[in-house]
Write a structure and sequence with these properties.
Structural class: alpha+beta
Order of helices and strands: HHHHHEEHEEEHHEEEEEEEEEE
Shape: globular
Protein name: 2OG-Fe(II) oxygenase
Pfam families: 2OG-FeII_Oxy_3 (PF13640)
InterPro entries: Oxoglu/Fe-dep_dioxygenase_dom, Pro_4_hyd_alph, Pro_4_hyd_alph_FE2OG_OXY, TPR-like_helical_dom_sf, TPR_rpt, uS12_prolyl_hydroxylase
Number of domains: 2
Helix content: 25-40%
GO molecular function: dioxygenase activity; iron ion binding; L-ascorbic acid binding; oxidoreductase activity, acting on paired donors, with incorporation or reduction of molecular oxygen
Cofactor: L-ascorbate
Largest sheet: 7 strands, antiparallel
Length: 298
């Protein structure tokens, strides 16, 4: 089997149906069984599993790579991220783009509070408006880039004070776990987003050169009505260069699980895949509390 470009395969995965992804994974699984000493095949299978959100399978592939090639820094780094141990391994210097470190905290709030957040979102349905893109001073609606509805801070008011407090209390701990340069926490910016059928957000990053430059950590809290009435809406965390100028083609897929919080450094590129749903009710959509922890300027 020839080693086709993994970059081309990952680009296809980001926009392809599940059947194709499963078929691609099966082909590489077969290839690794036929060529068990081929480090590159295990590496590519690991990258495919990471792109599919299959963390345990990806870790197993990277472990195979490290068993055969102990000096493979990228495999060691990615495995540590997927295992939640990114604080123990330095970012490799032998690649232009590196995976985003991230944390996932399941059952982030109590079940009762999770339901109260959902109730708040449904109650505020009429206040959700089209989300904008671009520098804050020049924001505009462009549904070819970002197709979603947003509930801004003025409409939220103090309704999420308890949630904001919980975020603030964890800031210092998250800095250590994500192995980011320590910073003094400033204000916490948050909004609520709603995605319905065919809505998405193209590749972007949250930290810019304007008022967003102090955004240091991004957090995304997933919540929705149970049973889940949609598919898709996964978050893809793209490998990003050290200066956050460009995104690579490889990524880590994060499944939007109810009552789960995702945290990652704001300079990493990411996107939301299109949501698919046959339900048109507002309460059946994909909801998130999206926010940014700002660093105090020194």
């Amino acid at each position: 089997m020839t080693h086709d470009s993994i970059e081309n395969k990952l680009q296809t995965i980001a926009q392809s149906p599940l059947a194709f992804m499963v078929e691609l994974k099966q082909k590489y699984e077969y290839a690794t069984r036929q060529n068990p000493e081929d480090v590159d095949l295990f590496w590519q299978l690991g990258e495919i599993n990471r792109a599919l959100g299959n963390f345990e399978a990806a870790i197993d592939c990277y472990s195979q790579v490290l068993h055969k090639c102990p000096q493979h820094g990228r495999a060691r780094y990615i495995a540590s991220i997927l295992q939640g141990r990114q604080h123990s391994v330095d970012r490799p210097t032998d690649a232009l783009h590196c995976p985003a470190p991230f944390l996932i905290q399941k059952q982030f709030v109590s079940t009762d509070y999770n339901q109260s957040i959902l109730s708040l979102a449904i109650e505020k349905e009429s206040a959700f408006v089209d989300a904008k893109v671009g520098a804050l001073a020049y924001e505009t609606v462009d549904t070819t880039i970002r197709s979603t509805k947003i509930l801004g801070k003025s409409e939220i008011g103090n309704s999420l004070a308890e949630f904001r407090k919980k975020i603030f209390e964890n800031c210092e701990h998250w800095q250590k776990l994500l192995n980011v340069t320590p910073f003094t926490t400033g204000h916490i910016e948050l909004s609520m987003l709603h995605y319905q059928n065919r809505q998405f957000y193209q590749v972007h990053k949250d930290q810019g050169l304007d008022e967003t430059r102090s955004r240091t950590l991004t957090f995304i809290y997933f919540f929705y009505k149970q049973p889940k009435a949609f598919s898709g809406g996964e978050l893809l965390l793209y490998d990003t260069d050290e200066n956050a100028h460009s995104a690579g083609t490889a990524f880590t897929q994060i499944e939007p699980e109810n009552n789960t919080l995702l945290v990652f450094p704001s300079q990493y590129f990411h996107q939301v895949t299109p949501v698919q749903s046959s339900f048109c009710g507002f309460d059946s959509g994909r909801f998130v509390i999206n926010g940014f922890i700002h660093a105090v300027s020194t």
